[in-house]
Amino acid sequence: MPGDGNALIVATRNDNGTAARKLIAAGARADQGFEGDGNGLIVAAAAGDVRLLGDMLAAGADVNAAVRGDGNPLIQAARNGHLEAAQLLVGQGADVNLVVPGDENALIGAAWNGDLDMVNYLLSAGADPTIKVAVPGDGYRSALRQASQAGHTAIVDALRRAGARE
Q1: Nearest residue to 146 via CA among 109, 101, 105
Q2: pTM of whole model > 0.85?
Q3: 29-46 burial string, b = 16+ CB within 10 Å, else e?
Q4: Phi and psi dihedrals of 71, rounded to 5?
């Protein structure tokens, strides 16, 4: 169970944009991470709150701020099917190939969840379909392997067209 991390994470998780914006204005760092809770950016991205993400980034938050076990903002947007949030993050400089140990990367998450639109967007934004992430006890994970295991044939086809191989 999350430990709530800080007041900004709580406000963001509880969909209280007014409180979150006040905290940001008072100097709360949206990229301050807490293992098990993520950070404000990660929580906003997981919820698809594009407006709050924009406010956090405008206040100077690191678009690639990662928390082991919680991913990073782009990974969360991709896993949760929030295309507009992913587009905002990439437009603000998010690294589409960034691997966060234990969370892989955005393309692997989108492929596993069967989100063809997200997969296509990430590929168009430069995501590398050949990335394989070593996972203790599981060998490796890749977008192609995850999509194949989950039975997402349209995604498997798109990844192969983009150059993914086993």
Answers
A1: 109
A2: yes
A3: bbbbbbeebbbbbbbbbb
A4: 80, -145
